[in-house]
Design brief:
Distance between the termini: 45 Å
Shape: globular
Radius of gyration: 19 Å
Strand content: 5-15%
Order of helices and strands: HHEHHEHHEHEHHHH
Keywords: Flavoprotein, FMN, NADP, Oxidoreductase
CATH class of the largest domain: Alpha Beta
Structural class: alpha+beta
Strand order of the largest sheet: 1-2-4-3
Family: Belongs to the flavin oxidoreductase frp family.
CATH architecture of the largest domain: 3-Layer(aba) Sandwich
Number of strands: 4
Largest sheet: 4 strands, antiparallel
Protein name: Oxygen-insensitive NADPH nitroreductase
InterPro entries: Flavin_OxRdtase_Frp (IPR016446), Nitroreductase (IPR029479), Nitroreductase-like (IPR000415)
Number of domains: 2
């Protein structure tokens, strides 16, 4: 084990922050760590918007489902797919292919994880805000995004004001398959369910009695932001 692995395995989502600011040097390092991430074909199709205006923070918190920590975090970053740079250089690019939208989403996830790990290595904490996609068009308008550029998710960063327990993940042997896809081992899932129940019943806040299967079944039973495809299409993305 080393300090990098320790940081990765110690990850918890932090939603409560002190009033202490993140220094310019820390933020610069976090962003540089993000820029060092892998990029498909070196296309570099991600832009990050640092939101510092309090009124904009308040609106974004509302768009994200009244997530107050969007306002209270020391820093709030919005990660966007960005092919506008490329279209400015060459108006003939074909940004509408779904593969290019996937590349943008993958690259943004890789870049953001680099940023978060860098922040955590400094003793900072953060949480991803996928809820921005609840009202993606409204967030897009507020951030004045041009064509071929779209909101993906936000990230709160700051000095932690909480110390939550580690949330159990699925066992390695359930997630990792060798050579071909292996069927689901329901016995292993049942063991994990009990682990999650124990975690939820003993954690310091937001205790609940719900299995992982119950929560995921509920999440996947209905529509999941059906407005996202029209939104992406309106930005010239995922049109073909």
């Amino acid at each position: 084990m080393n300090s990098v692995i320790d940081t990765i395995l110690s990850h918890r989502s932090i939603r409560s922050f002190t009033e202490q600011a993140i220094s310019k040097e820390q933020l610069d390092t976090i962003i540089r760590a993000g820029l060092a991430a892998s990029s498909s074909s070196m296309l570099q199709v991600v832009s990050v918007i640092r939101v510092t205006e309090p009124s904009m923070r308040a609106q974004l918190a509302q768009f994200a489902g009244q997530q107050q920590y969007v306002e209270s975090a020391a820093e709030f970053l919005v990660f966007c797919i960005d092919y506008q740079r490329h279209a400015t250089i060459n108006p003939d690019i074909q940004a509408g292919f779904t593969e290019l939208t996937l590349i943008g989403a993958v690259d943004a996830g890789i870049m953001a994880q680099n940023c978060l790990l860098a922040a955590e290595s400094m003793g900072l904490g953060g949480v991803y805000i996928g809820g921005l996609r609840n009202q993606a068009s409204e967030a897009d308008k507020l951030l004045e995004l041009p064509p071929y550029t779209a909101v993906l998710f936000g990230m709160c960063l700051g000095h932690p004001n909480q110390d939550p327990e580690l949330k159990p993940r699925l066992p390695v042997d359930v997630v990792v398959h060798e050579n071909t896809y292996q069927g689901v081992d329901l016995a292993r899932i049942a063991q994990y369910e009990q682990h999650m129940l124990d975690y939820y019943s003993h954690r310091a806040s937001n205790q609940k009695q719900a299995t992982w299967s119950q929560q995921t079944s509920s999440k996947l039973a209905g529509e999941s932001r059906p407005h996202m495809l029209p939104y992406l299409n309106s930005k010239g993305l995922a049109t073909k």
